[in-house]
Give the backbone structure.
Amino acid sequence: MAIVFMLLASASFATMAALVKSLGSKVPLVQMVSLRCLIAAPVLFAILALQGKPLMVRAKKVLLLRTVLGMSAMFGFFYALTHMELAGCVFIGRVQPVFIALLAPLIIGEKTPKSAWAAIGCGLAGVMVILNPAGIWGPGAVAALFSALASAGAHLMVRRLNRTDAPLVIVANFTLVTGFVTLIPGFFAYRPMTAGQWLSLGAIALLATSGQILMTNAYRRDRAPAVAAASYSSLVLSVLYGYFFWGEAPSSLVWLGGALIFAGGIILLRGRIGHEEHV
């Protein structure tokens, strides 16, 4: 059942990314981020209330840092989606676990196993291939890489928060704080939207929220490596969405870079499975 939950979560995130791409040229970025969070926050807090869980996190300073990193990742990802092909953006985003392995010793004191360095090398090589072997990086690709790095930092902050707070409480608090922080700039940047755009934005909030809930439930029901492996299904959906809706056919370099990133992820997963078997 955990694999099914993660497959559904991956489908939610991939569909959300496609909707963001479709809105990106019509709705200001800060408006999209603000409304996406403000629409989702009441749903998340209603779920917490129904489950009888605390509404606020205990480690508020860590939440603040997680919010800064998470907002940076969200803005970077949304910007990248509107400035490069969907598949390439999502492929670069999948290097996030590699950044986590690279940053964990520095931020939370977790030792990176020797096997992870091969994964880090594969992942970073894949990113370099996708960005451009000639070194000419477009703004969308740079934003996607920045988003993956910021997301890695945010996930490390979540690991620290998990010591004191439940995952859904963390997600709800991050969503609420981000919504309020972006409320004023979102107000000044506001551009009237059509009914269809409001519907798309509501779907983005719903898909992001359901994806988080499904992913949380998936990790509760099975070993992390098995669940994480299922998350790579989002790559397939992203390629299909890009091809059918925008006529985007990933170049051979994007496929090569994506394969290297995928290989890096598999090496990390195999290392985690081996570690769990010896614990």
